Amino acid sequence: MYKLGDSIVYTLYGESHAEYIGGYLEGIPKGMKIDIEQINKDLALRKPSAGIGTPRKEPDEVEFLSGLDNGKATGEKIHYRIKNTNTDSSKYDIFNRTPRPGHADLPALIKFPGHKIKGGNQFSGRLTVSVVVAGSIARQFIAQYGINVGAFTRSIGNVRDEEERTFEDTVRSKDNPTRAATKELDSLMNREVLEASAEEDSVGGVVECITTGLPIGFGGTWFGSLDAEIARAVFAIPACKGVEFGRGFELTKMKGSESNDPFYYENGVRLRTNNMGGILGGMSDGAPMVFRAAFKPTPSIGKEQDTIDLKTKSDAKVVVKGRHDPCIVPRAVVVVESVTCLVIADEIKKEKLAK
Amino acid sequence: MYKLGDSIVYTLYGESHAEYIGGYLEGIPKGMKIDIEQINKDLALRKPSAGIGTPRKEPDEVEFLSGLDNGKATGEKIHYRIKNTNTDSSKYDIFNRTPRPGHADLPALIKFPGHKIKGGNQFSGRLTVSVVVAGSIARQFIAQYGINVGAFTRSIGNVRDEEERTFEDTVRSKDNPTRAATKELDSLMNREVLEASAEEDSVGGVVECITTGLPIGFGGTWFGSLDAEIARAVFAIPACKGVEFGRGFELTKMKGSESNDPFYYENGVRLRTNNMGGILGGMSDGAPMVFRAAFKPTPSIGKEQDTIDLKTKSDAKVVVKGRHDPCIVPRAVVVVESVTCLVIADEIKKEKLAK
Amino acid sequence: MYKLGDSIVYTLYGESHAEYIGGYLEGIPKGMKIDIEQINKDLALRKPSAGIGTPRKEPDEVEFLSGLDNGKATGEKIHYRIKNTNTDSSKYDIFNRTPRPGHADLPALIKFPGHKIKGGNQFSGRLTVSVVVAGSIARQFIAQYGINVGAFTRSIGNVRDEEERTFEDTVRSKDNPTRAATKELDSLMNREVLEASAEEDSVGGVVECITTGLPIGFGGTWFGSLDAEIARAVFAIPACKGVEFGRGFELTKMKGSESNDPFYYENGVRLRTNNMGGILGGMSDGAPMVFRAAFKPTPSIGKEQDTIDLKTKSDAKVVVKGRHDPCIVPRAVVVVESVTCLVIADEIKKEKLAK
Amino acid sequence: MYKLGDSIVYTLYGESHAEYIGGYLEGIPKGMKIDIEQINKDLALRKPSAGIGTPRKEPDEVEFLSGLDNGKATGEKIHYRIKNTNTDSSKYDIFNRTPRPGHADLPALIKFPGHKIKGGNQFSGRLTVSVVVAGSIARQFIAQYGINVGAFTRSIGNVRDEEERTFEDTVRSKDNPTRAATKELDSLMNREVLEASAEEDSVGGVVECITTGLPIGFGGTWFGSLDAEIARAVFAIPACKGVEFGRGFELTKMKGSESNDPFYYENGVRLRTNNMGGILGGMSDGAPMVFRAAFKPTPSIGKEQDTIDLKTKSDAKVVVKGRHDPCIVPRAVVVVESVTCLVIADEIKKEKLAK
Question: What are the two backbone dihedrals, phi and then psi, of residue D173, each rounded to the nearest 5 degrees?
């Protein structure tokens, strides 16, 4: 399903090697100012960082086909697209016989007869370029309501940031190529990536996302709970393997007397701790919403791997040549922000009149 | 949102202290045999275990209002309900002034003017009784396709099962009150619960769910990915704070050469490891689907807690008296199974003709 | 499907002879005043008129279970129900063998094994009592935006009102038992109904609905066009067999130079005629939205009819005894208004920020 | 909304003067043979007939980007597009000031600031080229279930076919440029169009659609009723102003004893008449499903028309030059068939397991 949201509706299209990757964004209010510079900044955050990212270069210039006029939303669906420049699929032919471990190749080839591996097809992380454009517009939409979303790299490989972080840290992290919160951590994480890269290997990590400004009660119930909707959207990002809110899995080792966040009064209701990550009963409790997403190591690695040959039905080897990110975590940071902005924008519109 | 699924559509209704809790299940094929004994068995698994669960007793007898005839589905929507017997809300009045930490009280009271706390209202874990009935029917539906879903307790508090487990282990776990995989672990986990209980406290834990029989390629793409849909449904269960597939957060510390599951050939494609939890690109890769869900400690505890008095706008104390589960993990096991069955059943119907 | 709308979401439940008929209405903004008197007035318009309606009496008292506090919406879903008092199904048993022509009996019995005819089951016009409650709340919601919906009886049998009518006429029609626009027409239509009734027969008619205050451009595109959404909701009303906007089928005999509504300027854009019924390209053109709905004669008639005996698989006769409306058109008037209010309310919320 | 259906999901994209018009069709089962010749035949039926259609020529060659392999569906979404060759919008500039009566120009210009009239933009009948491609695939899908959909021209202007027609008549109608059921009617209707054309005017008409093979009980309930879903999809076709099932508006003048279709037994249940158009309670009653759609005269006419000048805010005149269809009814026939096939295909998949 390429659609996210019910009232601010985002539709994704394109494939890794298609002529274009694009999207529709419906529901952005007429007259809202849309800052193209902001979109370009967000897109720049998705680009590979020098040294630790893929040397593959895509200009990623967004073309708007409808919905924008003189820098403002017209109320029509916003249709945009980005031209793909790297669309040569010939070097991927081999994977039609010997699917890449860790990729969607095997299920796609078995599920869809005649499927041809072209980059990552519709499963490619390349499609997140469309997510970031829509997310950046959603970010501008929710900012009008005083809501801000920021993410940073909590860990790469065995280097883990042990400090509690704030929204301001997420802003600062954007100056660091790894999106770590500090220069020191950036340098350590950078080394972790370069070491993996030197071994033709890859490494994973954790992105943490902090949202401020959600009014108490913001969110839905049951299958429309705010955390449930966000988890769905974050798991849709390629390579995501886990999502936890607040202290998440750690909470399972705590006592209720430790995990419950006590309330106190100081110019309004406040919480002494934020173990719950700002969510109670699927709704905001007024504390910043905090969640973490686990990203696996990039599956494309230069090392030889065991696979099978679908033609001869026997064991085989495969090497994934070419220019791949040894770690996608730094680039995933803005993508996690983007889907979060989209979910919140949709929910704002759903709740709009209820406030 | 009280609705899950698009083609096998489950709608939940009721509140903690409403006359009835019930549900609609649409899309179950005409003529399918529905085993009421199976439903009652699943409901029994949701009941509190002697010693470690709440002494509150609800008979939980399901009444079917439509959709069933002579033990078979008629093709009409299946409408069922369970009578609530404990519906006295008087002892909850105090929480309208002094909301319970860890509960939905605070956001609900602030979001909905005039909201009256009655048990857990629509946010109550009590509503999972409806989820289990629908899930049990979905379980019978997916069994026809050779798909089986089983869950067990991976950890409670600091007691963690360190073994790799199989679907068979999940079956055996049902003989143990804590749903641990072995008697030894059950005894250790049991003690963990009793200790918390003795201190008027509570404890959390991790449920692990294993699904066998999914055909390679089963699942959707992007926002309809199988893992994304399951994460959404699992996060909808009250008290869930995290979901991870395969080795989940641990993957972030691995190298790609370790985390990628290599393929080999032996009467079909196989995987040497299952680090991905059976999911590649949002689809089944043929290995069992494995995920874990983190449940926080029960927020209702007998210990005095800090809260605020919404009337006087000042700090206050609250004690949650009454009979509550010191640990909801054992009861959550069948609920996790149930939502998983529902998501898979919906997806089967979506994919039905595509097979 | 028992659900209408995406952002103001109405869910219908119940059956002709169930304990309750009810509904959920989600999305009504917190704090909106809800006038119960207005709801009761709308329900009264749905009741059979003395003389020309069924003598079956239902008190139709609405009980609100959630979402209302001190006459205001709380922002929670509004859950309400109406107790059925006539739930004796015994006299319907015969129709399980000899289905009633013009009713859903035959398809329901063949589609759903074990289906038992109880009144009209889920297909019954009785369920429109729930539609009217939700519609009445939606009516109050859209009134805040200056939008008013009124309907009246355009024709019964061969008596047809040939005048062009306005919203004010629809208000006046409510004083007439047949909902005709004038006393004279009321008297003629009344006779038409009584004549059919005297012959143990029934008669159909046309309801016309006029909506004022829609801003130019209100509505969606393609499958979300305003006329398309309204047509769907109106066809969902039992016994509706046709819907036309503006001059509808008559337009097919006109020339473009006659049918196009010319624009002119007088304190804003205006239209000289309203052949299009206020809709261009699926959106409001600023003229009142006008459509008509055709209702077939009540299928329940006292006359003997040809049917089949499903048990003996042979021809049979059936007589539908009891107290039925010889004409449902007067009661359908407020139901047509109700679904129109619901569709517009949903669309307002979708467009809210786009204005 | 550019999406139709829930399980066979059709998404429309493009604009009158965009580079491409296209669509996605999701849910077509893997391995289903797709006959491109059939699609081209259906597209040819949408092309203007010599003499009575617009001389504007579009080659309408379909390019498939995904979902097809060796003439079979792969199970992936079917993505296709058609290149627009006429995309010069310069002659439409004038309509930004003086909107065309009968078109979406006025509401679009007022609703969407900065909107530029380019042909019919997203409201254009040109987009039905995408509908026909998807509909043709849906037609092939439903044919596997023995269901066939055919439409023909019931009337153009004042020439009306008074005979009862069958599915076979709809097949024969395709040999006639006007899609009339007989040569005689074709010649009369043809004259009606040419007369309007000679006067720089246009004319409307009625399309009738007949569907055979629907099993008894096929369809949904309430807002998902088969007739409701079809009405929605047909009203989405540009220029449609009315939809009626069976004898439709005529039923309102009948008595129940005349309108109810009596059942009889002859190798199964049969109906003596088909006044209901094959629909009872939103479901098929086993008789052919018959409905009619009213199409207004083409709004583009060469005659001078009254409009307003949006810049000077005063009355103005407009002449719509260029090559337009004096009657779109013949071309609408296959479009009505197409949306009907799409709705039925979606419903088949929803009901599939329930049979």
Answer: -60, -25
Query: What global pTM score does this model have?
Result: 0.87
Mean pLDDT of chain D: 93
Contact at CB, D66 and A15, closer than 8 angstroms: yes
Distance (Å, whole) CA D236 – CA D5? 13
D6-42 pLDDT, tens digit each: 889 999 988 888 889 999 999 999 899 999 999 999 9
Among residues A102, A62, A104, the alpha carbon closest in space to that of A84 is found at A62
> What's the maximum distance between 2 C-alpha atoms anywhere in chain B?
71
Q: How far apart are CA A17 and CA D236, in angstroms?
A: 34
Query: In chain A, which residue's Cα lies nearest the Cα of C76?
Result: A354
Q: Is A101 annotated as a binding residue?
A: no
Specify the 3-state DSSP secondary structure of D162.
Answer: coil
pLDDT in tens, B237-253: 999 999 999 999 999 99
Residues in chain A: 355
Q: Which residues of D touch C242 (CB under 8 A)?
A: 242-245, 248-249, 251
Q: What are the pLDDT digits (tens) for B60-75?
A: 889 998 899 889 998 8
Residue D297 labeled ligand binder: yes
Interchain CB distance below 8 Å, A99 and B263: yes
Q: At residue B50, does pLDDT exceed 60?
A: yes
Cα–Cα distance between A290 and A306 in angstroms, integer? 38
Please state which CATH number belongs to domain C3-354.
3.60.150.10
Domain ranges for chain B, please list them: 3-354
Pairwise CA distance, residues B329 & A339, whole Å: 30
Q: How far is A7 from chain C (nearest CA, A)?
A: 6
Closest CA to C186 of C156, C151, C219, C224: C156
Choose the closest CB to B349 out of D75, D353, D355: D353
- Chain C contact residues (CB < 8 Å to A): 6-7, 27-30, 75, 349-350, 352-355
Q: Which residues lie below 8 Å from residue D1, measured CB to CB, with a gap of 6+?
A: C220, C221, C222, C223, C224
First to last CA, chain B: 31
Residues C263 and D308 sit within 8 Å (Cβ to Cβ): yes
Q: Which residue of D has its CA nearest to C285?
A: D107
Q: What CA–CA distance (Å, rounded) separates B124 from B345?
A: 25
CB A7 within 8 A of CB C7: yes
ipTM for the whole complex: 0.96
Cβ contact C27–A352 (<8 Å): no
